[in-house]
Each structure stands twice: as structure tokens, then as C-alpha cells.
Amino acid sequence: MTEERKISMNVIRRLPRYYRYLGELLQKGVTKISSRELSEKMNVTASQIRQDLNNFGGFGQQGYGYNVEYLHTEIGKILGLHQNYKMIIVGVGNLGQAIANSTSFSKRGFKLIGLFDVNPRLIGMSIHGVEVQDIDKMEQFVKENEVEIAILTMPKTRVKETAESLAKWGIKGLWNFSPVDLFVPDTVQVENVHLSHSLMTLAYKINEAEVEREKKDKSESIGQIEE
Amino acid sequence: MTEERKISMNVIRRLPRYYRYLGELLQKGVTKISSRELSEKMNVTASQIRQDLNNFGGFGQQGYGYNVEYLHTEIGKILGLHQNYKMIIVGVGNLGQAIANSTSFSKRGFKLIGLFDVNPRLIGMSIHGVEVQDIDKMEQFVKENEVEIAILTMPKTRVKETAESLAKWGIKGLWNFSPVDLFVPDTVQVENVHLSHSLMTLAYKINEAEVEREKKDKSESIGQIEE
DNA sequence: TAGATTGTTAATCGATTAACAATC
DNA sequence: TAGATTGTTAATCGATTAACAATC
């Protein structure tokens, strides 16, 4: 009956950026913005902004533009930021600690309620009032507290089995920082942060730019113009 | 004269994943693999693998497949992993320390040679033999050592000006962890890691899956089948 | 009302998949 | 040689951009 319209991940991954820019405008006291103005700030096309937004309904007003606060709120709702998420961190090494210490996530409704590790030297330590527990306690904790998101910042050797256990215990999302691809039941959503991939991509860009520059220099010195 | 073929970022961003899988195969002692076998392991189409690789030339052999070691090396070269990169970290907070402590990058030729911060309590501290210096020393250091990559793990308030300075001092790439978009000259390549975007995307996926499940339950309970 | 800007359709462009001839 | 699998062209699919009628 209702139109089935699967929204592409390309669109979804642009939403947080819109959300961020709108939040900044809001803080500056800007109340309205047109797709053209926003497109210039964000270095995208106005058409894309309008297309993206209209996947979710009409948030603007012809002849006027978009109300910044309203649009910001609505995008937040689409992303699911109107609700809270209970999170745990599995693996309290440097990266786990870094995330635990960040306050910006909790502001957006992502609440850190548990920390787990195997290392006895870390167990008992507290970060922002959350104590590191032995990983043996994780099953009970996840079930009792209905934890939604697990942040995987542990050595990659144990990630696969941990992810499988967490899936069994009812976790909804895994934020995976290990260089591993997780194949879990579709009751569990996975979002990967592959830092090494990102760094390799930067290396590519650097080399590519170098090659382009050399090519340009060469054609200029020869006096050729290639399109 | 030579064919101009700009390779899309979609393709590039898949290369590190191929590289990782090939590395794992190599470690397992696998010497050859076909695009079909690899596609099954990686959950992509064989066609895509062959198309991706053939952007850079033919690495395989008809009737045989691909030599794992050779393909691994070649993808490494495409990504620019055959050379070393001198890196510094700007902002030695939790995240900066986490990256500094990670040994996996240096194995791939990304060498951390400098750490900078404004915090006097951090200055003088050492991580893996690299001492944290006052940020005042950064200009001289970058120029003298011909630093290629700066890792920006500092508060977002100072990122913009820092990026501009680094660009002026000849940096080639910025690995930006701040929730900020950097607009720098095209002599500098930027790769962003927006952790908050990633987490919001996970929130979306979780909600989306929830909605899908409810929809399915409903149509099943009513006995309707919708395609 | 006239001007502005959305929402939306149509056109273009690019990316992915399918198919198959080339060839090892 | 026969079988397998690549490299590559063609077909399909999806995403982006352009255009413009609807409308505030």
C-alpha cells in the first residue's frame, strides 16, 4: 500500500553533515536558510540537498527556504538522535579510553554505561564514573541493562567471537574499530571504523596529487595542452 | 595522448579491503585466488573485483586467477604503501595518544616522528621514543624534517588555523579527526575521520532495522504479503 | 502581485552487474 | 586439447544534476 522506498546509504551518510552544519547555523542564530545558501557553505549542489531531504518528506517552504531549527530537529529524528542509546566499550585500551573520555557522544544521547576488559590492571579503574569490569561480567550486564550498542576496541583476535556473543545477548549495534569484517545476524547492525583503510586512502590521495602535479608540469614545460 | 581515466573514490576506498584480505590469504600460505573465490569471501561480486583491478591494468592470468602475493604487492603500490611517510600528531589528548601508541601504522610505512601539544603537562612526555614538543616548535620541525602527514587530534576550535599553517609549511596530507571540514589549497590532501557521523549512521541503521522488523511483523500478523 | 525557492520530474552521468570473447 | 578464468564490452541500474511547474 504505502510506497516502498529504500533510502540509499549515500544519502544517509550525508545527513550527519547536514545536521552538523544546521547545528552550527542554529548556534549562530540563523533562523532560515535556502538550499542554495547551504549548498555554497557545504560545497555540494542545492539540487542534491533538496533531493536528499525529499526522500523523507517536505521540510521546506516554497519561496522561503528551510527553517533551520525545524530542519535540524527533523534530521536528528531521521538519524534516531531523539532517543537515548545505552553503550558499552569492550576493550579499554588507548582507543577505548579515548572514546570513553569523549563527552561529545553523551550529549547526543549516546550514554556510556559499561566498560569491559580482560586486563586485571584496568579492572576497577573508573572513567567518568563508569568502572571497568571483568569481561566475564559482560553477559549479565548486557542482558540486565538492555545495552543497545557495543563499541569494539579490542584486539582483533577476539572480536569475532565477542561479536557473536553480543549478538546472542540481544545487542542492536556494533561500532567496530577492528580491522575485521563482522558477519552477524541481521538483528545486529554493524558500523565499521577502519582507521588503517582511511590512512591508506590518504596515502593514495597524496600520491595521486603528486602524479597529477608532475603530469601538469611536464605538459606545461613541453608546451602541450591536454584536456 | 595517453588515455585519461580518473579513478573514482568508490574504487579507491575498496582497495584497502582487498589489500587486507590478500594479506590474510598470504599469511595462510594461499598462493592463488580467482575473482570468484575472493568475491565469496568478501561478499562482493566477482565482476566488481575484476572491474576494480582492471582500472590499474591486468594483474591476473586467464584460466588461472590471481597470484596472491603479486596482487597484494601491486595494490600496495597503487595505494602508495611502497614508500614511507613521516607523520606528526597535533594534539596529544586521549585520541592522539591512542594513535601514537598504535604500532600497526608504522609497520605499513607510516612513521611517527613528532608529537605536538599546547599543554605543558604533556610536553616532555614520550611515546614510543617520540617526545611531545611545544606546538611553537612545529613550524621549524615540519620544515626541517619534511613532514608529509599531520594527524589532527586537537580541539576543533584551533583546527582551521592549524591546517592553514601546516599547508603553508608544505604538509602533503591531513588526517583530520575533528568535526570540521577543512578547505585547504589543493597541494594538501585531506582525509576525514568523523567519528560522530559514524555513530549517527549506526543509530540510523538500528532504527531502520527496528522499523523494518515491525513492518514485517505487522504484515505477517495481518496475513498480507507485500513485495 | 511579483519574486523566490521548494518539491518533483526529466535528463544526464556514473557505477555496478552481466555476458562473453580472448587466452592461459 | 578442454576447462577455467580473466579482461573487457554491453546492459542495467542507481545517483546526481538540471529544469521547471507549483506555491508560498
UniProtKB/TrEMBL annotation, chains A, B:
GO biological process: negative regulation of DNA-templated transcription; response to redox state
InterPro entries for this protein: CoA-bd (IPR003781), NAD(P)-bd_dom_sf (IPR036291), Rex_actinobacterial-type (IPR058236), Rex_DNA-bd_C_dom (IPR009718), Tscrpt_rep_Rex (IPR022876), WH-like_DNA-bd_sf (IPR036388), WH_DNA-bd_sf (IPR036390)
GO molecular function terms noted in the UniProt entry: DNA binding; DNA-binding transcription factor activity
All residue ranges annotated as the CoA-binding domain in the record: 80-181
Gene3D superfamilies on file: NAD(P)-binding Rossmann-like Domain (3.40.50.720), Winged helix-like DNA-binding domain superfamily/Winged helix DNA-binding domain (1.10.10.10)
Domain of life of the source: Bacteria
Record keywords, A-Z: Cytoplasm, DNA-binding, NAD, Repressor, Transcription, Transcription regulation
Compartment(s) where it occurs, according to its Swiss-Prot or TrEMBL record: Cytoplasm
DNA-binding region, residues: 17-56
UniProt KW DNA damage keyword: no
Transmembrane segments: none
Record: residues binding NAD(+): 91-96
Signal peptide residues on this chain, from the entry's feature table: none
A GO CC term assigned to this protein in UniProt: cytoplasm
UniProt subunit comment: Homodimer.
Record function comment: Modulates transcription in response to changes in cellular NADH/NAD(+) redox state.
Family membership noted in the UniProt record: Belongs to the transcriptional regulatory Rex family.
Protein name: Redox-sensing transcriptional repressor Rex
Annotated gene: rex
